[in-house]
From TrEMBL:
Membrane association type: Multi-pass membrane protein
MacB-like periplasmic core domain segment(s): 20-232
Regions that span the bilayer: 21-41, 278-302, 323-346, 366-392, 413-437, 679-704, 731-751, 763-785
Signal peptide bounds: none
Database matches in InterPro entries: ABC3_permease_C (IPR003838), MacB_PCD (IPR025857), Macrolide_Exporter_MacB (IPR050250)
GO molecular function: transmembrane transporter activity
One annotated Gene Ontology cellular component of this protein: plasma membrane
Listed name of the protein: ABC transporter permease
Keyword vocabulary terms for this entry: Cell membrane, Membrane, Transmembrane, Transmembrane helix
Species: Parabacteroides goldsteinii dnLKV18
Domain ABC3 transporter permease C-terminal: 283-398, 682-795
Cellular localisation: Cell membrane
Amino acid sequence: MIKHYIKVAIRLIKRSFLFSSINMLGFVLGMTAAFLIYLWIVDELTFEDFHRNRDSVYRVIAVDRKDGGEMKESAYTVAPLSKALREEFPQMENATFVLNFGMLNLHSGANLIEAKYTFVDTAFFDMFSFPVIAGDPALMKKYPQQIVLAESTAKKLFGDSPAVGKDVTCLFLGQVHRYKVAAVLKVPRKSHIRFEVLLSEQAYFEPLSWDFAEGTNVYIQLRKGAVLSEADRKAMGRTWINQREDGRPLEFQPLKDIHLHTSFKDPSVDNYGNMSQIWLFMALALLIIFMGAFNFTTLSTARASLRYKEIGVRKVTGAKRKMLITQFLSESLVQAFLSLVLALALTELLLPFFNRFVGKDIVLLFNWQTMLFILFGIIGVGSLAGAFPAFYMSSFNPLLAFKGGKATGRKGTLIKGLVCVQFVIAITMLFSTSVVFRQLHYLQNADLGLDKEDMVVVDCDVFELMAYYGNQGIDDYRQEVMKNPNVGNVAGGVDLSNYLRGHKTEEAVFSWMGENGQVDSLKMVGVVGDGNFMKTLGVTLLKGESFGADKNAYMDGTYQKESPVVINETAWKMMQVKDPVGMVVQNKGWFGETARIVGVVKDFHFQSLREEVKPAYIYYSRQLLNTMYIKISPENKAGTLKFLKEKYEEMRPDNVFSYRFFSDALNLNYAHEQQLSRMFLIFTVLAIVVAMMGVLGLVALATAQRTKEIGIRKVNGAHSDRIVRMFCREYMIWVGIAFVVACPVGYLLMVRWLSNFAYQTPISWWLFPLAGLIILLITFLTVVAQTWRAASRNPVESLRYE
């Protein structure tokens, strides 16, 4: 019986090839979109899956609870915490720490690269399962001078030559540190731990104590079968506090939750996901695949009148309604299966382009999850698409069928409703895509209160560090750079692109005697800069003055008692003082306990536009001066960059010249929005194509069913354009109804999405009619293309057999 149903279904496809092709193309595009989104979602949900112990590993989170209920979380703790947790709690199978030290040089013969140095303890390789390309990482446990390289680092340093066993050196603090490569590891893209050079804790440049917390992440591994109870969490959470009074309570985050469920900013991780995007694209996949199913439902229902006699004959010859329902469902299931095969082929073909768009390396694997998804796709989509036509056509009265009975009003209402739903989805997605792109453009081009164009950012932390050892420092490099006529202003400061990406910022609480005679206080974010910082970056001074360009003023005692600071406009407003210039404020920071406000600057964005501008102060700190901002002429950029590189290498031949343009660095802050906009564009185009395939099928069917009517109208003097307008009018009305529904839906969705940003592009009114007009125009062209051919035919052909 099943074989019979399949034969009949295939025969129907051959007999109505045009409509079956349109049905299947809608299925194919819908399933392809669903497959691509499914693969993307699976990729997002399987971060860290390559680790054998992924289900028992947790990251330690430090919690800082402020007065008023505010809670601040951080992945930064202290290295000795791992040993303390491992020794004090029997539930612990293991514990380790990861200390990201920073960028240093790495030599091998004449080859020199810059790489990120990461220090770990001996338990690291027991807890984490990074794939081994070559060598034995366990050697690092026995021999502190053995190091492990990431595969990308090994290729940069050694090319295609084997790296294991090779000697490498690092020049740091005036000393040469020698190492031997023990192993080369692959760092999967789906790992939040990113390293280039791994070193043993014993190779660190100073003892790691409870006082050293910068850049340290701690991880724990529970014993098999152990569970973290609330009592365990509380006891373990006090470990840091038990060691130091200023320690913080601890929480424990499962390793598999890090990618999608981290609510705080972590500068050590640059590949966080977003669970809201998972739900968003899951909804998009369902909508697009439903659109393909709607096409099948509308066309099958509309074509029911062509099968009246077939249904009548089947019923007269004894076919029960159950058999007819099975027959019609089998037709949709066969088409769904064939569409699925084509969709899989199309998915495989589009994957390289899709990966390029979303920045991934997804592959189509036929595991049990994928096969289950495919099975659901065939049965679910096929049944969804074929259910109404099957029940509708099987209910026909055979007597009416032989008389050529007409469709009921319910059928016409369903067809119009489904077409309108498709138009609503298409208009909403097109409108949403335009808003996402406008917001991304706004984020990348908003006035930050900073001069970001033609601004070269050079890493110079090594310069200032080496100056302590009698070598040339950042000021010496500045003097050399200024000799080039294509170089304008030059300033030293902190790397603001790191601040904008949510990296760690210095904060201090300032207190002062208020005008009411009581002590007021305000927490501000510190931004390090020298005397040229504000001028070079174009920060506008509103009141007072900047601190001097001469760094010696900070070192010779001029500001020994009162270090100068410049606050921003937001800080001035929140201080609620008439004139802050000249005020003495108390603070415990890098540069002393007392500071004097010497100026006020216009607000500038030192953090992402997702957040409002916070109160901030600009100050000088030689210890934190790690970045140079060089304003260059737009002419001969290549020559200027070559000059900067040559001067750098003359003064620091043991280091790599590392630079970036400030504007490019700032745009990296919005990688998630860029990915979202690209994916929205892809699936909006697919949704529009699927919708138009449905329109094309309905128009083709309508012209076929009304061929004789068109011929009669032409014989009676109707022009082709009038006949075309007759067909177009109905679809234009449907688009109009869909536009009315889509406007509030799209507006509410985008208002909700834009609420994630403190600074938003306005939702311009013209975006609504623009989206509607684009869908209207595409629909009009689709209808005209199909109806013009029918309307232009010789009426004799359609009336020949009448």
